[in-house]
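User: Here's a chain of 359 residues. Predict its fold as tokens.
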Amino acid sequence: MAKTLFEKIWEKHVVKTIEDGPSVLYIDKHLIHEVTSPQAFTGLNNRGIKVFRPLQIVATADHNVPTINQHLPIKEELSRKQVEALVKNCAEHGIELYGLGHPFQGIVHVIGPELGITQPGMTIVCGDSHTSTHGAFGSIAFGIGTSEVEMVMATQCLMQSRPKLMRITVDGTLNNGVVSKDIVLYILSKISASGATGYAVEFAGSAIRSLSMEARMTICNMSIEMGGRCGLIAPDETTFSYIKGRQFAPQVAEWDKKLAEWKTLFSDTDAVFDKEYHFDAADIQPMITYGTNPGMGIGVSDGIPVAETVHESDRSGLNKSLAYMGLKEGTPIKGQKIDYVFIGSCTNSRIEDLRMVAS
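Assistant: Prediction complete.
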């Protein structure tokens, strides 16, 4: 029977299926940080429970930490207490911590891929919605709440209902100046910021395969902005080349074994999705958002739309959004004053992005 990439990974990780209910899903890697873990550790301690598989957990301090002068005490009290709690809890439960001053410390969605912790075919969770970033490697990765963080710590499993399946295919050659952010904003402009709610989204097509791993991570990171449960891209030679030789990547004979396994991770030709979208890369311009949600996007040469042309879900808030932005329906976006330029996101703290801006 033909299967999608998602189904192949999901089915290998189901420990038990509850009749008319969710599945018990085994989690390969659990990434934690200082914000959503303290309450989970407190819950375990109150019940006298130890972390079940500490070697499957990787911790880092990344949400409430300063960019510079990390050797100094954190000034903001709550942030300081959260980081201190992470240090204490990881020491007590035998969890590897990449804390302040550690050479591996960094943004939780960045260090996983860069250290070779993130690998195809895995199930990965973290108490952060943009955990979907790791799906760029052909893994099922999604954010969880604090009570679920506690559940994974206690059992290395998670109660989870299988989402519906969506495939978004982008074929063709991208226009000059169009990057992964533009691809996602274009898709959002077509299906809305809630268009993928309830779905695991596989991104496919020649335009997606042409992207670097960093760009693919941005695509999957922003699948959450369209309401998706997670985003994923089938691994290929670009993926394998990125992983090979990294700190925690498989080595020597184990590499060959894993590589053979990873090469089976793709959606079969006649696999069935619950919903499909097809887009032509030639239609995508550099994109900008004109409103207050990521679905309100237009090409840089387009005009701000009028209410009748936007998604029904966005119409009621259009006037409020434009008033907030200081814009008017039907006017060109070109020539509008730019107040600030924001570079990057929680997955884009990479040299590739900075070089692009510098050039």
